[in-house]
Structures are given as C-alpha cells and as structure tokens.
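Propose amino acids for all 839 sites.
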C-alpha cells in the first residue's frame, strides 16, 4: 500500500517511537507507537485543541498525573466473559479507578474557558467509587483477600490461626521432651504439614509420618502422631479458606463485569488523555508551535522549519546542529522543483515537509516559528530513495516508476471519489511574491498573462506529493521528458508537488507555467561544502566539479572537465545563476540587518510599554486604596457622630452634655478628617475675648470666650456648643493665623481593624468521621463523600499509629479545592490524632 510505504519512507514509525517516550501509561505508550494521522480535518482540529489544552496544563498546573493507572483491559475483558480475576488484577482496577477520578478532578478544577475540550472529554467519565471502595475493602495492598471480606472467611481464618497455634504448642513440647533425638531445635514445613527434623537412627523416639529426608539421609522430617489429626483439620480449613476466597473474588469479578461498558470507556478516555499529554510534552520539547490549516487561497507558511528526527538526533545522540528551512509557498503554486548539489539537503527538505504535514494531521505541534500555516493534506504520498531489487529484477528506474504508478493510482481514486476537491478560481498572477528572506519581487501582469497556463480552474485534491530525483536512472533525454510530463500531470491533480532533480530543463518550467516554482539548496564555494539552506526563486547548480575536487578526484580530470564545461552554453547559464546567488546573498545580509534593527526596536518599545503599564496599574491601585480609606473614614465618622447625637437625644440636654458632645466631635474630627492645607496667614495675630474666629477643621465660625492659656488653648462657642481648641486650629475671618510654638505630638498608634473571628464550629456525630484502620485510598473515598455532603467543619479521626494514614489525609486535604484550611483538633477533642478541616 503506497500510503504505508510513504509512512515508512518518511520514518513516521520512528517519530511515533520518540513520541511514545513521553507517554505516562502502558496503553498510552502502545497507542503512541501505532499513532495514525487523522482521517479528517475536523478530527485533526480536535486533536490539536486537546494538545493545546494539555500544553496549558503543563504550563499552569504541572501537567496531568497518571499515577495508579494500569493496563487492565485484559482483566476487564476476562471478567466480562465470566472469568475469575485475581486479587492483584482487582487491585489494579481499583487503583485505575482512583487515578481516573484524580485526572477528572484535576481537569474539572480548571476554568471552563481554558479546557473546554478536555472537560468535555471527561464529562461522562464514570469512576465508580463504590466498586473501588468494595475492592479496597476486600483486597489488601498485596492483592490478598482480607479477613473482613466476609464473616465466614473471617471465622475460617480465626480457626486456622487457633489450629496453627495448637500444632505449634504441641510440637514445641515434643521438641523439649525429645531434644536429644532432634537434628536441630526447629519446627519446619513440608507441603502444608508441620514436621520436626529427627535424626534417622532415633526416628522411633518420635512416632509419626515421615514426609521427607535430607540428601544424606541423616535427617528425617517427621510429622508426630500427636499433631496428625490437627494437620488434617488444618488442611480442611485451608481448602475452606480457598473456597471462600474464590467466592469473594467471584463477587468482585461479577461486579466488574456489570460495569464493563463504563470501564472500557474509562480506559479509552484515559488513553486519549495520555496521548494528548504525550503530544503536548513532545511538542513542547520540540519547541514547536500549533499549526493552522489554510484555505486554498491562502499561503503556506513554514519559517525556520526543523526536521523532528534530526532534532532528536542532535539532543540525544550528539548529532550535528539542525539547519532550519523556510517554506513560503504561494497559493497558486502546484509544483516546486528543487535543484542543487548532491548531499546538499534536498531529500531532507522533502522529508521535513512530509513529516510536518503528518504531524499537523496527528495533532502535534510543528517545530517551526509562528505563524505555522499549511493546508490539511488528506494524502501524503512519496517516492524517496533508491530501492533497486535483485530478487525482483528491478533497477533503480524500475522501482521509481512502479512506486510513481501507485501514487498516480491513489490520486485517481481520490479524484473519482471527489474528496477534498472544490470548484474555484485558479491562483492569481501578477501579485507580489515573498521569499524566505522577506524580499518581494513583482511579476508584471503583462508578462504573467503571456505565460501559457493549461491547468483547469478547479482546486485539486488536498494531496502532497514528494518525489526524489524524478526521472533519474535512465537516459537523460528520456528521463527529462518523462519528468516534465509527470510534473505537469501532477500540477492538475495534487494540491502541492515537491520534486528534486538535476535536470536543467525542469528549471525552465517556471517561465512557462505560473504554477511552477524553482528552489535550490545553497552551496558554499569557499569551503566547497553545502550549507543545507533552501533558496527560493533561483535554480541551483549541481556543483559536481567542485564536489569532485573536494572528494579528492584527480585534479587533471577535474581541470579537463572544467575546460569542456567552458566550451558550452551551460557555463554561461551557471555564471548567470552564480550572479543571481551573489545578489541573493547581498539582499539576505541587508534584510537580516533590517530585521535585527526592527527586533531591537520592538524589544525597546515593549519594555517601555510594559513599564508604562506598571506605572498606570500602580497609580490606579493607589487611587483605589486612597478612595477606600477615605470612604471608610467617612463611614466611621458618621457612625461616631450618630452615636453622640443619640446620647444627646436620650434626655434633656445640659451644658455638660453639650460640652462632652463637642469634645467627642473634636476627637472624631482629629481622627478621621485630613489635615487642612496651611493657608497663607499674617503672623502676629492673637485673638481676644469677643472676637469672631473660624475653625476650619469643624467648618464652623465661633466666638472667643477666654484668652489663650499656657497651653495656647482658648474656649470658643458656636451655637449652643462650647469647646476648647488650640490656637493652631483657628484663624481670623480674614484668614490670619496665630503664631504658636511648635510642640511635638505623640504619634497615634491605633491598631488596624481586624476582622471578627468566625463563629466556632460545633462537633456532632454527623461531621465526625472515624478513619482508623483504613488505607489511604479507602480513606480518600470516605472523605470525598463527607466533603460533598458536609458544610462548615469536619472532624477526621485518624489516630497516631505509623503516621501514614495521617500524612495521606493531610495530603488529600491540601489538594482538595473545597478545603479552605485544616488544623489539629483541640486537646479535648483528640489533639494530634484528630484533624479539623474547614470547608
């Protein structure tokens, strides 16, 4: 199948292997290793949305935690087919249910606008905490059935314990009585029977059943007759224990079978989450960016595109530095012919573009600079490499032709089905074209209109065709003719074809058909080595003679070839191309200098803008704080004045009451009102009795009743009120202020208002939960239900013990979004053995 051949030629399985190393579960690893690109654009868009949200989780929540998830698909399938599951398999199912619930909790705890796709993915996820709790109740951490699994099993195990103790006691007495007959004083087992190591010559001293002997025959392992009956009883109890354990395992297996559909859906959802998690981590590791699928009339933009496998090789295998390429393909282009020397990177360019198209379809980021824009290619078909076969009598040319035939057949199937096709205008001409350096070149409309164009006015199927050394392996004239015919055929039947070639005639197709474009790989003639950079708009030279000289071919042969090249017109063409390349390098240098200057300017602008924003935010924050402080002071002053007025209204007002009220208002004013700005005043003003003065702090005009005392204070009256004020607080009606000695005032140290403590919670039997004797996972299930039903506070009894349960409870409370805080209980309520959690 040509599609699978293309995946292998582009080394897609190797990329999937790299992706699988970022998966967290076994099922996710296997799914990543066999990853297939999506079959529709809508599915690719959905996968990319999952990847973007998983990247958001990596940046803001340390990603998803797949702890406890196991590959229990086979066990669930066997339970569905009435098979009996073992304790370890049931325990794995329980941990998987718990792990899936933690995944859902992590995703649901995020803002809905940030994770709409992933939250929709886990919306219908059923984790069956009842089944999980049932398994934890019956199966311990080692996968064994617990005594509490059933009353009958508990009774059997109690009798087993008593029987073993009875056997041990009887054997211990025999050891003491017959110590001389024993090879060594110990009790051991052979099978499920308890025996004593007796010296062979003294076997008659311990009558019983011989179950085994040592290799030398000097020791016989005898079950004394006194414990034979107890041994028989022990064996019967063991069989009963096994039977009852199977009953418990059967009940649990049937419980798993009843939720088979939910468990299958859960495993599928967890695997999809792990794949999204792996795609996100791999994409971030590649430093990739999310692609956008373009419409037929839009340009393909892939700047600084790197080959993902070469990036892996560079980082993990100390490979060479990866040279990025720029692919800016106008919408009307259908065929790009890449020319240049061997070992120059032409084939790598084809593979890089092919992998980028497949990665976008599979929901992966592309290792290129933003913006990443390319069509959704429903088919990626390639003929790359030299695969001649002696067994099938296939030459290089024959193998290429057979594969190209399969490519054309696949395109024919798509054309007949009408997939991805659509009627529309052909790509326009006479518009500005931008190359990889940002340089634009205008094609005159008169020249463009004179170019022949026979392509139909329809959009061909969304197929990407990659051809390496098209037409090679046969006579150059025939190969050239075949290559031209093939490329013209593909221009009508594929969205984009990219082909590498050495044939000079293919370079001229650009000037005959606007759907064709030339590109070349750069060659440094100074070092006689390729730079692996892709240049657009200029055909390349093979540089065969320069490469031959670098590889050590006899100089006489190279000089002779150079002389032959100089006699033909080909040398003139090469000189023209060399001139164009020199001009291109000069333009690139200028463009890079302009880009650096623009980048520096943008960086400076962003820094200035950032600082301006910070200052604006700080100013806004200070104003808001000041307004809040003023409002609070006004509200407090109003409350204080209201209390003073109420006290005056409670009875008949007296002069003393008025004096006290005036003093209270003075205190309120001095506490809440801001100091008035100093007004220009004439020095030397001294009020006398009977003068009218103004008190700015109270906004009142008063009459002076007394002369200033030693503390520079006077008594004034306004209305029915009399109060004592400082000379510094008054002024004349003309704005004159009295000069008074400056006297330091103590700084008020009024503590900030503190919020009233919340009302104490009351402990009841409903909000008290005893977790002693439980495992951490079992305790978490109980706590989850308690938190869902509770309000206020919970008293959680975990005891002291080893501290493992307490640490697990505290870790769970730290992670739960509904827990505000928690603390040890009061000593009367249990102290450190009890934790109080506030919801």
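Proposal:
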């Amino acid at each position: 199948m040509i599609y699978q051949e293309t995946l292998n030629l582009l080394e897609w399985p190797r990329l999937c292997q790299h992706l699988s190393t970022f998966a967290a579960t076994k099922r996710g690893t296997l799914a990543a290793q066999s990853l297939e690109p999506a079959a529709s654009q809508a599915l690719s868009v959905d996968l990319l949305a999952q990847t973007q949200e998983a990247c958001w989780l990596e940046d803001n929540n340390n990603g998803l935690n797949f702890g406890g998830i196991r590959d229990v698909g086979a066990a669930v399938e066997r339970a569905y087919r009435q098979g009996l599951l073992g304790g370890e398999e049931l325990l794995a199912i329980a941990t998987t249910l718990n792990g899936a619930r933690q995944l859902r909790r992590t995703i649901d705890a995020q803002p809905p606008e940030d994770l709409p796709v992933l939250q929709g993915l886990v919306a219908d996820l059923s984790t069956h905490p009842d089944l999980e709790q049932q398994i934890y109740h019956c199966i311990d951490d080692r996968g064994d059935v617990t005594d509490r699994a059933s009353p009958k099993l508990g009774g059997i195990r109690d009798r087993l314990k008593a029987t073993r103790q009875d056997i041990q006691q009887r054997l211990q007495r025999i050891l003491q009585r017959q110590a001389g007959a024993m090879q060594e004083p110990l009790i051991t087992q052979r099978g499920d029977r308890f025996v004593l190591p007796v010296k062979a010559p003294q076997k008659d001293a311990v009558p019983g059943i011989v179950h085994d002997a040592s290799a030398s025959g000097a020791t016989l392992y005898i079950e004394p007759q006194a414990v034979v009956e107890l041994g028989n009883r022990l064996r019967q109890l063991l069989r009963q224990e096994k039977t009852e354990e199977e009953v418990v395992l059967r009940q649990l297996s049937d419980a798993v079978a009843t939720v088979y559909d939910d468990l299958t859906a859960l495993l599928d959802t967890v695997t999809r989450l792990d794949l999204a998690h792996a795609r996100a981590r791999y994409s971030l590791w590649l430093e990739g960016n999310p692609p956008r699928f373009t419409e037929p009339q839009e340009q393909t933009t892939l700047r600084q595109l790197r080959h993902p496998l070469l990036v892996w090789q560079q980082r993990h295998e100390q490979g060479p530095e990866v040279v990025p390429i720029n692919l800016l393909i106008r919408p009307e282009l259908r065929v790009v012919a890449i020319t240049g020397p061997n070992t120059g990177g032409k084939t790598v360019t084809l593979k890089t573009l092919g992998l980028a198209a497949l990665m976008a379809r599979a929901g992966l980021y592309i290792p290129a600079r933003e913006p990443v824009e390319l069509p959704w290619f429903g088919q990626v078909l390639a003929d790359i490499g030299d695969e001649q076969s002696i067994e099938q009598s296939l030459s290089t040319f024959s193998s290429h032709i057979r594969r190209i035939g399969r490519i054309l057949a696949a395109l024919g199937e798509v054309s007949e089905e009408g997939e991805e096709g659509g009627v529309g205008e052909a790509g326009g001409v006479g518009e500005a074209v931008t190359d990889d350096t940002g340089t634009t070149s205008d094609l005159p409309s008169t020249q463009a209109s004179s170019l022949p164009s026979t392509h139909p006015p329809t959009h061909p199927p969304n197929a990407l065709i990659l051809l390496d050394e098209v037409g090679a392996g046969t006579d150059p004239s025939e190969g050239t003719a075949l290559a031209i015919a093939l490329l013209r055929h593909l221009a009508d039947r594929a969205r984009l074809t990219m082909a590498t070639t050495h044939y000079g005639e293919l370079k001229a197709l650009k000037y005959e058909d606007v759907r064709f474009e030339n590109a070349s790989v750069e060659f440094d003639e100074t070092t006689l080595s390729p730079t692996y950079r892709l240049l657009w708009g200029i055909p390349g030279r093979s540089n065969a003679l320069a490469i031959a000289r670098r590889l050590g071919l006899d100089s006489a042969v190279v000089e002779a070839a150079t002389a032959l090249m100089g006699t033909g017109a080909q040398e003139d063409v090469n000189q023209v191309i060399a001139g164009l390349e020199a001009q291109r390098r000069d333009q690139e240098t200028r463009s890079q200098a302009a880009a650096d200057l623009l980048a520096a300017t943008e960086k400076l602008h962003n820094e200035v803008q950032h600082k301006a924003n910070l200052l604006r935010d700080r100013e806004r924050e200070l104003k808001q704080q000041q307004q809040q402080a003023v409002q609070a002071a006004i509200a407090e002053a109003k409350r204080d004045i209201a209390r003073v007025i109420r006290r005056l209204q409670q009875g008949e007002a007296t002069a003393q009451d008025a004096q006290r009220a005036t003093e209270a208002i003075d205190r309120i004013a001095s506490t809440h009102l801001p100091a008035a700005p100093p007004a220009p005043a004439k020095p030397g003003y001294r009020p006398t009795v009977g003068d009218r003065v103004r008190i700015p702090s109270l906004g009142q005009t008063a009459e002076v009743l007394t002369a200033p005392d030693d503390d520079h204070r006077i008594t004034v009256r306004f209305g029915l009120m009399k109060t004592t004020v400082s000379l510094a607080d008054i002024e004349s009606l003309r704005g004159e202020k009295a000069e008074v000695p400056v006297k330091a005032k103590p700084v008020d140290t009024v503590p900030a208002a503190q919020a009233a403590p919340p009302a104490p919670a009351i402990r009841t039997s409903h909000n008290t939960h005893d977790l002693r004797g439980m495992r951490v996972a079992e305790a978490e299930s109980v706590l989850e239900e308690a938190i869902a039903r509770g309000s206020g506070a919970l008293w959680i009894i975990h005891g002291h013990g080893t501290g493992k349960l307490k640490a697990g409870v505290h870790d769970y409370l730290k992670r739960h979004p509904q827990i505000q805080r928690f603390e040890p209980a009061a000593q009367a309520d249990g102290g450190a053995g009890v934790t109080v959690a506030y919801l």
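The chain has five domains: 2-128+259-285, 148-254, 300-567, 673-732, 768-838. The chain has a mean pLDDT of 81.
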